[in-house]
């Protein structure tokens, strides 16, 4: 009845179909009986009410049949739940980090990405954590959904049965840009995945024998990738449009009005200001914006911040 893209999806679809068939069947039966009784026992047919005696077998049937149906629905729901909470021992592990308003994924070799690449036909266990507020990892195509709670380790697993691209949603309201907290599961053939996961790991590469221009260009590319990976683009644009935060376009060298400890002052946006804003985002709030940015203290290295600053200079 439904197309499933994972092993768990088949179990969920069966339980859902069973519950729907039972519910629709009961609705039809009750509706028919109700109409029949309204007609059969209408006052015009029975102006004098008669006392109806008990019927032992009827009472047994209408007690046992719903009980059996409820137990059957519970059983298949329980089977699906056990499957969801029991990942195969050979499952590939990936760590998913949720923060307002983006997903990032880290693989066992240290590679990070903003989209979840997986090999088709291989079980994948996604370890979930959240940096700020409650989020929820939801892939409708795989029929899996699990909350990511700050300070609580949890997981979700699935086995994509075929290649394709599948949308990841945040299914828990997490603030102003909640509806933009999207990513993708990209299921590819195993050989293609192995080539991808080994390419460019870890994020910040140290390459010797590069000219100054080559090293700067590499650092700027790394900064652009980090701004995507850390979810910066969910709140900041590169075209001058203001979202939750100021646009990156023309940011370096601009004079901005900020609120510091309740007092308004003018500052020049330079590298030091950007670094402080990344590590202590509530220290200087740009006038007209809310203090919604999460701190990256302990989450970004000095080299990574330097790369982001060099990238911003190109805008």
Please give a structural write-up.
The protein has 315 residues and is α+β, with helices and mostly antiparallel strands. It has three domains: 78 residues, Helix Hairpins (Orthogonal Bundle); 107 residues, Cupredoxins -  blue copper proteins (Immunoglobulin-like); 102 residues, Orthogonal Bundle (Cytochrome Bc1 Complex, Chain D, domain 2). Helix content is 35%, strand content 22%. The protein has six helices and 13 strands. The strands form three sheets. The chain has a five-stranded mixed β-sheet, with no helix packed on it. A five-stranded mixed β-sheet has the order 4-10-9-6-7, with helices on one face. α1 packs antiparallel against α2 and α4 crosses α6. The two termini are 50 Å apart.
Number of structurally distinct domains: 3
Task: Assign a percent range to the helix content.
Answer: 25-40%
List low-confidence stretches.
202-208
User: In the CATH hierarchy, what is the class of the largest domain?
Assistant: Mainly Beta
Radius of gyration: 28 Å
H and E order: HHEEEEEEEEEEHHEEHEH
The description of the largest β-sheet is: 5 strands, mixed
Question: How many β strands by DSSP?
Answer: 13
């Amino acid at each position: 009845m439904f197309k499933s893209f994972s092993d768990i999806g088949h179990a969920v679809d069966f339980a859902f179909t069973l519950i729907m068939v039972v519910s629709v069947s009961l609705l039809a039966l009750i509706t028919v009986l109700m109409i029949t009784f309204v007609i059969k026992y209408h006052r015009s047919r029975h102006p004098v009410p008669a006392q109806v005696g008990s019927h032992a077998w009827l009472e047994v049937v209408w007690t046992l049949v719903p009980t059996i149906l409820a137990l059957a629905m519970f059983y298949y729901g329980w089977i699906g739940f056990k499957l969801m909470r029991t990942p195969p021992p050979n499952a590939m592990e990936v760590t998913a980090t949720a923060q307002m308003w983006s997903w990032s994924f880290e693989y066992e070799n240290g590679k990070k990405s903003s989209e979840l690449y997986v090999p088709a036909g291989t079980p994948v266990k996604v370890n979930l954590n959240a940096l700020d507020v409650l989020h929820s990892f939801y892939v409708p195509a795989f029929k899996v959904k699990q909350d990511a709670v700050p300070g609580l380790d949890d997981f979700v697993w699935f086995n994509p049965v075929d290649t394709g691209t599948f949308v990841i949603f945040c299914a828990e309201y997490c603030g102003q840009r909640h509806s933009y907290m999207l990513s993708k599961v990209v299921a590819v053939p195993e050989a293609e995945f192995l080539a991808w996961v080994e390419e460019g790991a870890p994020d910040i590469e140290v390459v010797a024998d590069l000219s100054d221009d080559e090293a700067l260009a590499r650092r700027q590319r790394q900064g652009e990738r980090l701004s995507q990976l850390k979810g910066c683009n969910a709140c900041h644009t590169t075209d001058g449009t203001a979202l939750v935060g100021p646009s990156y376009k023309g940011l370096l060298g601009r004079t901005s009005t900020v609120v510091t400890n309740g007092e308004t002052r003018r500052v020049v946006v330079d590298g030091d200001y950007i670094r402080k804003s990344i590590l202590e985002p509530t220290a200087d709030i740009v006038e007209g914006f809310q203090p919604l940015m999460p701190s990256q203290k302990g989450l970004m290295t000095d080299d990574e911040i330097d790369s982001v600053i060099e990238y911003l200079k190109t805008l």
